């Protein structure tokens, strides 16, 4: 760990990696709570995996893979949202199909692109140590966009997440808000891909928010707590992985998984103690 | 009790009826649920809708709220099509449409009723919070304000849902089985509360419990695919038997004093329609 802090002062790439982690953690906080309480983790997973199609196509046609990822994420979010709003049932099949088709398309494109096969691993599992400055700016812009939209509309998003029918009766445009929320999930997925890769995104999107949810009692405090947890987990994972030269993405995810497990056990134990003793709400 | 007095007061003011339904038909696919329903609810009225399970009560409410479209017929609510009148309706559902473990306080749930009073971004205003406090106070649940929604008892939750409906400043209050999930002592308290609210609001309440609500409401509509209306004092054994289609154990209650008697037997006529 001391080795990491020493390196941090010397190595610019490490400072950039740390910054990338911090930028991604705002996504954990702002969007993660909605994914957790609305129970759309599988949907978010579908969006994340379909992104490979866009990245592969972008590589093949010579665009920035991140732009391809952004386009693919938004398109698949709207597709899944449209399926759910139109048919209600069959949503999970549609998600599964999009999940696999997106990956298949991506791998075909990458296989046809000479010299890019090494990129596949960093798409899948992230490469926080190789985030160029340009991408940090891109991540910061996504963060600002998320912050603005959620800051202005969080009451509306909470309303459609909490009770769709009642929101509709109060005249809220429920379908539009739902689609917008899915688009925000898509943006967050793209935001996190550089850090942990598209396969592991789902953990970073849900675990900090899930842990926060075990200790807080409102969506807004969940957002604050999940952002801080996300920042701690990405920085901590990065630091832990440095000395033994482990890949940082999986280390971050394992750390998040461990925290979730410990938190769940502690909450369970506290609940048992509290039901035994006279009850008082925290 | 407020039986009839509000209706008399509202008559002749030229206000459109709170609800006007003519020739309403509705079917889920091939299965007819409502046939040829006519109903007019005057401003200030307190209407009870009773009938067996699957008699179409909740469907009728969904049509009035504009959540379903009629197969045929016309519905006007406060003089407008249901979808446009929606924001002026306070609705208390039978089953809340949210998971009980959702991380949200009572105050924030009640605040949800403030949507529809103007489009605004950002946080709730001080006025919104004051209105939520006033609504909670009116249903005698102000002390629950900071509680988590999941920690409430059935009766407390019912009051909170009522506050959520009231905070949107409705003209018409619609309740679907407001007492189905609470014990019978609290049932009386809820109806006393509704009787008070009826001084300023038109109320439509659906219940399976004809004997109980007829002590409070000014008129009873009996719904079993078709609709028949009665003044509350004309309900007799034959009416109930026609409606539920089997022998029903009756109880006595006194309309003039409004105190329901023999509460313990009111749930005898069960869902066998």
Automatic annotation (TrEMBL), chain A:
Membrane topology: Multi-pass membrane protein
Protein name as it appears in the record: Metal ABC transporter permease
Organism: Thiohalocapsa halophila
Family matches, as InterPro entries: ABC_BtuC-like, ABC_TroCD
Stored PANTHER family: ABC-TRANSPORTER METAL-BINDING PROTEIN (PTHR30477), METAL TRANSPORT SYSTEM MEMBRANE PROTEIN CT_417-RELATED (PTHR30477:SF18)
Main location: membrane
Transmembrane segments annotated in the record for this chain: 12-34, 40-61, 66-85, 97-115, 136-157, 177-207, 219-240, 252-270
Subcellular location: Cell membrane; Membrane
Keywords (A to Z) from UniProt: Membrane, Transmembrane, Transmembrane helix, Transport
Keyword match Membrane: yes
UniProtKB/TrEMBL annotation, chain B:
Domain ABC transporter: 19-250
InterPro entries the UniProt entry points to: AAA+_ATPase, ABC_transporter-like_ATP-bd, ABC_transporter-like_CS, Metal_Ion_Import_ABC, P-loop_NTPase
Keyword annotations: ATP-binding, Nucleotide-binding, Transport
Source species, domain of life: Bacteria
Family: Belongs to the ABC transporter superfamily.
Name recorded for this polypeptide: ABC transporter
